[in-house]
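QA checklist item 7 of 12: single-chain prediction sanity check.
[x] sequence parsed
[x] length recorded as 394
[x] structure emitted
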Amino acid sequence: MLNKAQALKNEIINLRRDIHQHPELGFQEFRTAALVADTLNEIGIEAKAGVGRTGVVAQIGTGDGPTIAIRADMDALPILEATDTPYCSTHDGVMHACGHDAHTAILLGAAHLLKQSLAEDNWHGNVRFLFQPSEEAFDASGVSGATAMIEDGALDGVDAVIALHVWSTHESGKILMQDGFSLAAVDQFKAWIYGDGGHGAYPHSGADPLFMLGPILNAIYAIPSRRINPLRPSVLSLGQISGGAAPNVIPNEVYMQGTIRSFEQPVRELLWAELERALKLAETLGGRYKLQIEKGYPSLFNDAQVNGWMREVAQEMIGETAVQDTEFGMGAEDFAYMAQKAPGAMFMLGAALDDGIVRGHHTDIFDIDENVLPLGTAVLAETARRFVTGSLSN
């Protein structure tokens, strides 16, 4: 399968570059979806557009038997690209800075290979291709691409779901895998501390929210280390604090916002409660507070059996030493919603360019080594092929 994917290398790269040049934000992937549907139709696979608003779904197989789904996200980010590649974004202020262009091209390559397999191998099931919009953000109603597709039935009847994510800062051609909790649940919060305000020369005449901020910050930063079991991963980070506008004026409020990360739901809920308790210190000190928590993606749980299927395929293709079992970190992925609907797993595909420049995700210089695209294509396609032909070993 890897040899067959290598034969498609130029086509996969060209697709990735086409998508990269024409990035689209979440739920605006109209051109990308049309490109996906047209490419699938050229392969001989009937595509259904408009699933999850701007998503595309297609399926091939016997009609009966189990079904495995493969997911790729399609959306870009609101970033002005600063690279000088010949395939640089042509849309000012919008850029594929997370590799979703590569994911989409890889899945189109896998669809091509699996269409060939359907004609050559003895299938006993189905493969569903999920081209998902808006992984990067919720809309105003709190809907992301994965939840929108699930609501439209894209995961109905699916017995397993797999995906990959390119990793621009990890050695090219290496594959990273992790069983169990792999990426974090992510929540955002906004908080206001209210006092009375007043003249800086007379601080005793009112409640100072900047003074309240000190003990509140200590309490917030102590939550992961003093209120959460150290064997249960958690992160609580502040990203903004603002208050006041003049050196001799005590403001009447201080604003802050930050992020909350966790793996397990009880820990997630405890972090919410402890943040509330920390902010209540404002009341003890004569002030008031308001807290808004915006609940985001759940944590991604990689099913050990599904992960094992992809691990075995990858090890056979590139050797055991190139497949590494390691933690992913406290980032987040809305593929987690799909992995809640069916046993699922995602692996990370190292794709760092060998030029000494760190091209981090969500930065304006993001780029990847396109030589890894056939490998990602082959691992996904071969895993699905073995699923539908009953040739998985575990």
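[x] summary fact logged: The CA atoms of residues 16 and 86 lie 12 Å apart.
[ ] second reviewer sign-off
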